[in-house]
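ok so heres the complex, two chains, lmk if somethin looks off
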Amino acid sequence: MADEVKLYAVAGSPFVCRAKIALNIKGIKYENLEQDLRNKSAELIKYNPVHKKVPVLVHNGNAISESLVIVEYIDDVWKGVPILPQDPYEKAVARFWAKFIDDKCIPAIFKAFPQGNEQTDAEALEQLQILENELKVKGTKFFGGDNINLVDIAAGFIAYWLGVIQEAAGKELVTKEKFPKLTVWADDFVNFEVVKEVLPPRENLLGFFKKRFGKA
Amino acid sequence: MAGSEVVLLDFWASMFSMRVKIALAEKGIEYECKEEDLGNKSSLLLEMNPIHKKVPVLIHNGKPVNESGIIVQYIDETWNEKSPLMPSDPYVRAQARFWADYVDKKVYDASKRTWTLKGEEQEKAKKEFIEILKVLEGQIGEKTYFMGESFGYADIALVTFYSWFYTFETFGNISIEKECPKLIAWAKRCMQRDSVSKTLPDSRKIYEVVMEFSRKLGL
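and the predicted structre for the whole thing:
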């Protein structure tokens, strides 16, 4: 029986992109259902009644929500290139960093842009410095080693969206000088084949954020 | 896993630490419990969890695991010969993770607001908190546990808050049993398990320590 895989998506969402990267890593064919979040479809509400957000993965009629839950589900169901480490301890470490990115880094970045203040800027820099240090300590190309793993996928926002946000806001907080490891990692990440293929076009994102920041 | 060394950095009133203790008890794992004074954190805690400096921390053969949900999954994957805590089906497992995530994102903050706020803000917080509990109650429905017949990850994520219900009810002047009877029934079913009843502290003791804490804060 053929698998039916649908992804309720919004092209510019970094969280949707996590699911797309995971599906691409496993080579899964899926139907992309673009959503209008200002006018939510009955289907989206049916499949994610609790949060009413994207992404939602619907696999043979079963709906899964929350991007990191979706990524782990994809890794559980489809074998092939692994997204999480096999070893329980390494897995716990990967989950820790993915949670850190979601709980600390991303909220801090949103608070610091488009304007922010001294405090929000310091907070964002502090959280990103922790990631920078982790890359330094690991000494590998990606958080996952030679290949991307759950942590790299979670950090996609930092690799791609952060640069767009900085440009749209006209505010450069995260520089190559202050974050040499993250800068190189970001470049490697966005050029990694399975990522490159699913990233939304930069001009579209830039236009979106400029409009959102009232700078269009 | 004979001969392995397991240490838990703990705070007795923390619903997050309780999650780990339930998981360890379900698996029958022997461990050393080190109580932390959160006002005067040990150098071990700061070394093992430098980023968050929080409990619980599980130290297994010298290596730290942080974040209660991650620790519970680690325990399940490492001591995997008996008492599985995660569902075996990937879709049901994803649901368990979703609901534990929902508890993490919603319950703690909403519950804290019911005893740290006053007046109109507190009324709003109480309403929000009950709404969240109703969503969880709806998910359990007529089932024995969150995911069906087996006690597991999602139950562990929420049931530890049960020891705090008396505190929320007394500070907030609400009855959770009246608003969410099925949720209380589920909690009582969980309490029939030794791992839960022997882990959760007396609700009144929690209330006393929260009273003292809020008095100190001038709340």
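quick notes: The first strand of chain B starts at residue 6 and ends at 10. thats all i got rn
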